[in-house]
Amino acid sequence: MLPTIEWRKDRVIMIDQRKLPVKEVYVECTDYNQVAEAVEKMIIRGAPAIGVAAGYGVALGLLKVESEENLDEEFNRIYRRLERTRPTANNLFWALERMKKTFKKNKRLSFSQLKKRMIQEATDIEREDIETNKKIGIWGKDLLKDGQSVLTHCNAGLLATAGYGTALGVIRAAFQEGKKVQVYAGETRPFLQGARLTCWELDKENIPVTLITDNMAGFLMQKGMISAVMTGADRIAKNGDTVNKIGTYTIAVLAKEHSLPFYVAAPSNTIDFNLAEGTEIPIEERDPQEVREIGGRCLTLPNVKVQNPAFDITPAKYISAIITEKGIVRAPYEKNLKGLGRKKNLRR
Asked: Membrane-spanning regions, if any (predicted)?
């Protein structure tokens, strides 16, 4: 599989996810503004991948600074630009804070050594993300049984991460273990991450996938065609409320009505312990043209009023378990997320 993002010869290289699956095109970013624009324009998307991009954006920004004079000011300018890109995904802010700590800790190094240390830190974030996703897969694969059909929404695979994936990482791990798992991928309007990206990923690895429109999920559940739901997350409040791609809440309610398990797979850095509940999580409102058009072709009245929230909130009561690299967490979430990593709070 192709890498989502990488550092190469003092450039940040990323696959342009807007072009998939028709074309596999790579974008080269030579300064931090280009990285920021790539995040804003969804050349790269997915909470963990955005975090990796933020780390590399900081490193690239400092690499281009020519003088140590006003270095703190330069760092803050780079930080603030990347911070403004997208408001919802916690991984973005987690990565920026990690880069800030590294910067402050190593300011006494020579200027060239500091730059190298910042590049190393960003590279570590990428490497650790892949390792984290594989651990999520190991924890989560036992939740899926041989012969089950899994509904997923949006794209939480390697394209949404540095590699391997969260929700798709669990499915991938189960499949690699020999389980015959059938995936139903919701198209995920309006950006069609499920139709364009999830189907592309799973087809590359010969994992059986069937594409459905977003409004078919209830029908398939009613017919007994879905065994479980597996999604990713962009931010999780400390009470377990989860923000994910718009439409996730609808699927969670349907799963509850049909007594189906609804699983969330996400790295622990997606959890925002500063927020008590999901209503405190900022929801990004995106360009109305994403709803009016598909592939540049207008589907409706060109000036019709549009609402385009990119995410919605799934209350913790609808979530059967949250799968992290440290283990599987179940309710009560406020207690068990806080104790994440303690074995007594984790069970399969």
From this structure: none
